[in-house]
Amino acid sequence: MKIFCIGRNYRDHAKELNNPVPKKPLVFMKPPSALLVNNKPFYYPEFTKDLHYELEIVLKISKNGRHVQKEFASGYYDQVALGIDFTARDIQDQCKEKGHPWEIAKGFDNSAALSKFVNISDIANKDAIKFQMKKNGELVQNGNTKDLIFNFDYLIVYLSQFFKLQQGDVIYTGTPAGVGPVKIGDLLEGYLEGDKLLETSIK
Ligand code: ZN
Q: Mean pLDDT throughout 66-92?
């Protein structure tokens, strides 16, 4: 399986990290070994002193496809989940400064927390999915997919020009504003349309 991730896909988040709003999706990937499922705890890695959470809506690819046309794009995903794109912000800043790839800052073990999936057909409006992150009970991110710069269909069309989409691949679609650091002992909880789907404690 492939784990695609989209960076800077919400204007307010691009702004908070002083990044320009992209004209095309900013794509990176994580290896399957990055997955952290079943609400297991996350163990703070030794190589960073500035680990951040980024709560994101995750799409699951439901059938194989290449060069998908816009009018068929919505047929390539049928489920969504919540994910946390854990990021070693200090390492990422060093990579960005040097113009290096981000993998060691973004693709390390357990850096892709993933909740269970829900059917999109059970969600009232797939173009306006509300999702929220609480850190230690306090609301820190409050997102809505209506604010995506590149929406789900656009991402399917775009990614499938470069990569064969395969059933079971997932796309982390980007994070809204409110990203921030975690420390050992913190509890992160993710809500999708008001339902708590994701929970992880930092150990
Ligand atoms: Zn992200």
A: 98
